[in-house]
C-alpha cells in the first residue's frame, strides 16, 4: 500500500483583481446620447460579454474604453490607473482591441500585420532602426519570433507570407486578434469577433478566446451570437439605448424578462439543443449583419 502524499493546504481564495474599471461613462454626439452612465468592471481571469441591439452603444463604449473617443463624462481605469484618451497610449498601457469593421493593412503580409501590432512593445527608436545596429536586429528577431508564436497560436502560421487581403474573412478576424495580442495586453476587447464566420470558425474562435484567457489576458467581448456569448462568458452586461439594463451570469441574463423583451425577442428557454439563434426576434442574432461603420476615427 502506498502512502498518500499529503495534499497542500488549499490556497487562500484571493479576490480577483480588477483589470478594467469604467465608471459613469457617457458619450454624447450632439443631441444623441449613445452611451449613458455605464459602469463596468472586468476582473483578471474573466471573460465578460457585452450584448445589446444594433445601435445600443456597444462599439461607442469600446471606443470610449480604448481612447478613440473622449467620453463626455466618466472615467476608465486599467489596473487602477486612469487611461489617457489616446489609443496608442491605451495600447501601451495594456489594453488591446479588434474592430467590428476589420482594420488590417491589406497589402501587408500576415506576419507584417502582426509585427505592426508588436510595435508598442519594442524599445528600439528611429535612429537605431535607421542604423540597423545590433540592438535593432536583436529586437527585430525577437519581435518576429513572438509574432510567429502568435500566428501558431491563432492557427495562421502557414499563411505568414500571404497578403492580408487574400485571407478568407474568418482568418482576417483571427489575424486581427493575433495583431492585438502582439502588444502583450492584459485586457483584450473583441468587437464582434465571429461576425461573418461559419459555425466551425465560430467554435474555433470560442476555443481561442478561452486559450487567451487561460494565458492570463482578461477578455471583454461584444457579440450578437448568443450561443457564443452564453457559452463563453463568466458575466454578461446588456446595453439597451446606451444604458446598462442588466448584468449577471449567462443564466441570469438569458432568463431576464427585460432582456428577452428588449433584445433576445423570443424566450431563450435554456434550449441547449437549438443550433440556431431565434429567428423572429427584433434583432439579427447571427452576428452577420452588423456592418455599420460607426467606429469613428482612424486608429
Ligand atoms: N461618431 C459618431 N457620431 C454620431 N453618432 C454616432 C457615432 N458613433 C456612433 N453613433 C451613434 O451612436 C449609437 C450607438 O452606435 P454603436 O455603433 O455604438 O452601436 P452598437 O451597439 O455597436 O451597434 P451594432 O450592434 O450595430 O454594432 C448609434 O445611434 C450610432 O448611430
Ligand atoms: Mg457595434
TrEMBL record:
<dbReference type="InterPro" id="IPR051120">
    <property type="entry name" value="ABC_AA/LPS_Transport"/>
</dbReference>
<feature type="region of interest" description="Disordered">
    <location>
        <begin position="265"/>
        <end position="299"/>
    </location>
</feature>
<feature type="domain" description="ABC transporter">
    <location>
        <begin position="20"/>
        <end position="266"/>
    </location>
</feature>
<dbReference type="InterPro" id="IPR027417">
    <property type="entry name" value="P-loop_NTPase"/>
</dbReference>
<dbReference type="InterPro" id="IPR032823">
    <property type="entry name" value="BCA_ABC_TP_C"/>
</dbReference>
<keyword id="KW-0547">Nucleotide-binding</keyword>
<dbReference type="GO" id="GO:0005524">
    <property type="term" value="F:ATP binding"/>
</dbReference>
<keyword id="KW-0067">ATP-binding</keyword>
<dbReference type="InterPro" id="IPR003593">
    <property type="entry name" value="AAA+_ATPase"/>
</dbReference>
<dbReference type="Pfam" id="PF00005">
    <property type="entry name" value="ABC_tran"/>
</dbReference>
<dbReference type="InterPro" id="IPR003439">
    <property type="entry name" value="ABC_transporter-like_ATP-bd"/>
</dbReference>
<dbReference type="Pfam" id="PF12399">
    <property type="entry name" value="BCA_ABC_TP_C"/>
</dbReference>
<protein>
    <submittedName>
        <fullName>ABC transporter ATP-binding protein</fullName>
    </submittedName>
</protein>
<keyword id="KW-0813">Transport</keyword>
Amino acid at each position: 500500500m502506498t502512502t498518500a502524499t499529503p495534499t497542500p493546504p488549499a490556497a487562500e481564495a484571493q479576490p480577483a483583481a480588477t483589470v478594467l474599471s469604467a465608471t459613469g461613462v457617457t458619450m454624447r454626439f450632439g443631441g444623441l446620447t449613445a452611451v449613458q452612465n455605464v459602469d463596468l468592471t472586468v476582473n483578471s481571469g474573466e471573460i465578460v460579454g457585452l450584448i445589446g441591439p444594433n445601435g445600443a452603444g456597444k462599439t461607442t463604449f469600446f471606443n470610449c474604453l480604448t481612447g478613440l473617443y473622449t467620453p463626455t463624462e466618466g472615467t476608465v481605469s486599467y489596473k487602477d490607473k486612469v487611461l489617457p484618451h489616446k489609443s496608442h497610449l491605451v495600447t501601451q498601457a495594456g489594453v488591446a482591441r479588434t474592430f467590428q469593421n476589420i482594420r488590417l493593412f491589406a497589402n501587408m503580409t500576415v506576419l507584417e500585420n502582426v509585427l505592426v501590432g508588436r510595435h508598442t512593445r519594442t524599445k528600439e527608436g528611429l535612429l537605431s532602426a535607421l542604423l540597423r545596429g545590433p540592438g535593432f536586429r536583436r529586437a527585430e528577431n525577437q519581435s518576429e519570433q513572438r509574432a510567429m508564436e502568435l500566428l501558431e497560436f491563432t492557427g495562421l502560421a502557414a499563411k505568414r507570407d500571404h497578403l492580408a487581403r487574400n485571407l478568407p474573412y474568418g482568418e482576417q478576424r483571427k489575424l486581427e486578434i493575433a495583431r492585438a495580442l502582439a502588444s502583450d495586453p492584459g485586457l483584450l476587447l473583441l468587437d464582434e469577433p465571429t461576425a461573418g464566420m461559419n459555425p466551425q470558425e465560430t467554435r474555433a474562435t470560442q476555443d481561442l478566446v478561452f486559450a487567451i484567457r487561460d494565458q492570463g489576458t482578461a477578455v471583454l467581448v461584444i457579440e450578437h451570437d448568443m450561443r457564443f456569448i452564453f457559452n463563453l462568458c463568466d458575466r454578461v452586461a446588456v446595453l439597451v439605448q446606451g444604458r446598462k439594463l442588466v448584468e449577471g451570469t449567462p443564466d441570469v441574463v438569458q432568463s431576464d424578462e427585460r432582456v428577452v423583451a428588449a433584445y433576445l425577442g423570443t424566450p431563450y428557454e435554456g434550449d441547449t439543443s437549438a443550433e440556431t439563434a431565434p429567428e423572429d426576434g427584433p434583432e439579427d442574432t447571427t452576428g452577420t449583419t452588423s456592418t455599420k461603420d460607426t467606429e469613428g476615427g482612424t486608429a
